[in-house]
What we know:
The complex is a heterotrimer of chains A (about 300), B (about 260) and C (about 375). Chain A has helices spanning about 5-30, 35-55, 75-80, 80-115, 120-135, 135-145, 150-160, 175-195, 200-210, 215-240, 245-250, 260-270, 275-295, 300-305, and strands at about 60, 65. Chain A is mainly alpha-helical. Chain C has 2 domains: about 5-220, P-loop containing nucleotide triphosphate hydrolases (Rossmann fold), CATH 3.40.50.300; about 230-365, CATH 2.40.50.140.
Amino acid sequence: MSSTNLNRDSIQDAFLATKTRLMENRRVRFLLSPGLGLVWTLVFLLIPLTIIVAFSFFRSGDGTTIIYELTFENYLRFIDGTVYQRIIVRSFGIGVLTTLIVLPLGYTLGYFIGRSKSKWTPILLGLVVVQFWVPLVIRTYAWITILGREGVVNNFLMWTGLVAEPLQLLYTTHGMLLGLIVSILPFMVLPVYASVSTIDEEIIQAAKTMGASDIRAFVEVTLPLTWPGVVSGILFTFILSAGAFIAPELLGGSSDRLIAPVIATVFMQDFNWPFAAALSLIYVLLIGLVLYLFTRKADLEEALEGASL
Amino acid sequence: MKSEWNWRAIKGMSLLIYLSMLIPLAVIVINSFNPQRIAGFPPESLSLHWYGEFFNNELFIDAVVVSIKVGIASALLCGAIGTVTAMGFVRKQFPIKNALVIVLLTPMLVPPVIIGVAATVFFVEIGWNRSIWWIVVMHTLIALPYAFLIVRSRLFLFNTTLEDAAMTLGADRLTTFREVTFPIISPAILTAMVLAFVISFGEFTATQFWVHRETTTVPIVIYSMARTLITPEVNVLATLVLVVTIVVPLVALVIQQRLSVNRT
Amino acid sequence: MSFLEINSLRKVFGDTVAVDDVSLTVEEGDFITVVGPSGCGKTTTLLNVAGLQAPTSGSIELKGRDLTDLPAYKRDIGVVFQDYALFPHKTVAENIAFGLKMRGESQSKRDEVVEEMLSMIDLEGYEDVYPHQCSGGEQQRVAVARALAFDPDLVLMDEPLSNLDKKLRQSLRTELKRIQRETGVTTIYVTHNQTEALSMGDKIAVMNNGNLEQFADPKLAYEKPASPFVANFLGQSSRIDGTLRTDSAPHVQLENGAILEVDVREGFDDGDAVAVFLRNELVSVTENQPADVNAFTGRVAEVDYQGRDVIYYVTVPDLDVTVQVSGDGRGTVYEAGKKVWLSIAPEDVIYTASEGRTGDQKHAAVQTSVGAQ
């Protein structure tokens, strides 16, 4: 082989190698692209949210029309009237209240499943996971059949003779809270279960050998170790209950109009898109504030991960 | 040792919670077999009467078809986008990655009502006519964080030496993905897709902004019936959905177990 | 031109220099062991040769072909990974045949090779078994078969025995050597285990801090270490610093004036600062003063009884060190506090330049071997 040939061969080899590498990289870059999900989120959520900001400074005209001129009227309407302020306060109040009730209940069940080491454990866990799968509408609708005038509870109470007249259970704040709590419970149970089940029983026994009582061992060992699960549960419980739509609408009374249904009404029935946009923005900023306070105490990403079990 | 007394209290409380979660669902199922129009409880007799009525009602059947179509489309999109995105986030290094993860997860944080409002305004403003695709792209958005997180956590556990091994054996990157990476993470992708389907199938709050007469989904039908007049067919619909939403993931779980037997 | 040439390989990660100017030449059919402590750059070197990492600078040539810019999948280099990296979703047969499949070989050809390989690694009938159903030792052999099945030019092994228990490690060591002998494939074997490195390698490359300290025949590296590091790393020994004197009877003068007679090593001159290494097993320990030239008295500070052997830590005032000595565990075992005599023959005293490498061993050592002494 002459040296020229060899030279040409090696140049060709090098060229081919570079070419394949480039081609391959292009295909691979697509596979590894972190951008696809980001673009989806940007286009279908972040840009729409930005447009909402703009809309909140427009004015609603006759019928479904919108007058595209800068105005603060939507925000003034919120600030001047106490109606919408009260709705927001009430929504966040329901959020806090639900969280306070769901936390101990959900923790108890999560702890129970995590600690019950038997052949039933997968079933116990499965019954909670299944709650996630059944549409929220159905789980909430079910309470109508339970709490209604002709519902299971009233029929039972009348049959026993404990009450003469059916009780008003449906369309009350208590009814709404009941539906809300039960439907949100899995969001607390699962993260707590996940962190409880990873605790080595020996660690707790070790605490007890060192003289800790049951309660002491729980407070000193179990609780801190399950804290990440609790934090995740609290985050979801609060966001979901403060923004609840179905439970207040299907089970709550007339005083239980929370912010989510109110925004929907303003948007879909009053066709006042600018005002709905302003309310949405106020609501989302308040949620953002809560999240900001949350991130100062806990890791947001970790908490969100807790929900993807 | 668990202290007996404490443990009994925990057990009792747990039982109550289970009952509160399961009794309402059981009542729906039982009521769906109650031939009475105004269903008393417990029913005096059982029949399939309302099932017959249900399958003759186009409104219900159409909603089921729409929900299944949307669910499958969103599941496929979430599986693809979630996998590609998770691959990118796990395997690539780029600036402000941690902040971008939070961006990806925002659909979990923004209340669905606001997602509903914002997307509607956006689609109307860009002149995109209301169609089933509104629901598909938006359900994909809503379920994407979950799909992403599931695939990502699988990828974190993935031993990249397997890919190195494949390449030393002569597989280029694409072949390596097809032959090694994908088969091994596929159970996680399946989980992500099933979850996306379930989320899509059950989404109500945001979806109510996007439906129209032809694209009404199951939750919308049940909600509007529950708001106005409850016909007994709703119990049938709810029961069928209950069965579907429990059976589909369970079947997926079984398939996944089969897949994972040799792949762990 | 040699079979494999690694020229001035350098790999930098951020501020860390993982491999710093390593050059190595391997002849066809050689079994090379690369040994060094963790973090010495041995695995990085291997990954660069495999094409799984790109060198910062330097080049790699195999059979006269420059591999430096070639992706891993075009290099025809088989790799056995530390954790085996068997594909969990593929059967043993599919794992072994993977390289052939990638090369477009027919199913019948693949089946044939798989059968051949399985018989070579003594796992006939394992075709349809999944890796997780195999024991650690079986997985290890499958990994070796997979790396060999496509008839690579070179096989790299990255600590392939480190995840196995001691007994299995020993039997597989012999097994690997046998397979290498049978196939004749050029092999580079990375390990942190000096016994493996010494026993398996036709040549041994000792690395430290990203540098190649010595590349030589194992016996040469053990007996004539090129640097204090090599002397210290291979075998158990005690180090004493001193000055070489060759004017009269060759000896090393220690700082406190004591004298240790030695043989003269090529490349050393009178007055060189040297590090002396007393190999545990080459120092004899006796109760009475021996007649040897290098005899020192000391006191047993600690006794580490290990059955057949016993390790003494003997404080020797003359040498100002505590010397580790291997004794015979079957005879009388001295107790701590006992006064004993240590002695070592001059030809058994190992020494190197007290800093860095002796001469330019990086390149010089390549040409040396025991036969050439």
